[in-house]
Specification:
TIM Barrel; alpha/beta; binds D-xylitol-5-phosphate; binds zinc ion; 9 helices
Length: about 220
């Protein structure tokens, strides 16, 4: 079953609580939480305090995508804030990704790495045994509402093969430019989790959109 993770980056920031409260009834599986530091990416969003404030409003897993330098500094704050899943970029300043994934697990959260569009799949192969998921960026991180980069589909297929060949249980999550058309392409290529920001939050009927994305 494909999981849909609406990205609250595209929700109304002045009514974030309401947006998150509705997601479960609208059929979402995870809440995708985009953390940007204005350094790793050219934008700033929100951090652990926002996560803590939203945590009581939903039972859905909080999927925290760290687009920050020094991601390990944020493991403990996000654990305390009630995050369920923490993903870190292989392109970040963290040199010891394997140890970082172990630290996220030791903190009781699910762990994964994120690959930018320019980063080859090889960057995560030796980390797969430590990953619960790998997030493939299908846009350059920093902003919602960008167009899906079609080369991502080949990366999904390659990663699917590598995971299956090793008999591992690692989810493939895809983030950026997901709409009903690209969602179908990602699912056909072997994706398990689809992040969707503008598609869900700009839709007249978010529940119908979530159903449509799931295929
Ligand atoms: C981009 C973020 C995405 C973004 C996706 O840096 O990681 O999660 O919100 O937004 P859409 O679905 O609008 O491309
Ligand atoms: Zn994201």
């Amino acid at each position: 079953m494909i999981k849909i993770a609406p990205s609250i980056l595209s929700a109304n920031f002045a009514a974030m609580g309401e947006a998150v409260e509705k997601l479960s009834a609208q059929g979402a599986d995870w809440v995708h939480f985009d953390v940007m530091d204005g350094n790793f990416v050219p934008n700033i969003t929100f951090g652990p305090e926002m996560c803590k404030a939203l945590r009581p409003l939903t039972d859905l897993p909080l999927d925290v995508h760290l687009m920050v330098e020094h991601p390990c500094d944020w493991i403990e704050p996000f654990r305390q804030a009630g995050a369920d899943i923490l993903t870190i970029h292989v392109e970040s300043s963290e040199r010891h990704l394997h140890r970082a994934l172990q630290a996220i697990h030791a903190a009781g959260m699910k762990a994964g790495v994120v690959l930018n569009p320019a980063t080859p799949i090889e960057a995560c192969i030796h980390l797969l045994p430590e990953c619960d998921l790998v997030l493939l960026m299908s846009v350059n991180p920093g902003f919602g509402g960008q167009s899906f980069i079609p080369e991502t589909l080949a990366k999904i297929r390659t990663l699917r093969r590598e995971i299956d060949a090793r008999g591992l249980n690692v989810l493939i999550e895809v983030d950026g430019g997901v709409n009903p058309e690209t969602a179908k392409q990602c699912i056909d290529a072997g994706a398990d989790v689809l992040v969707a920001g503008s598609a869900v939050f700009k839709a007249a009927d978010p529940a119908a959109m979530i159903r449509m994305l799931r295929g």
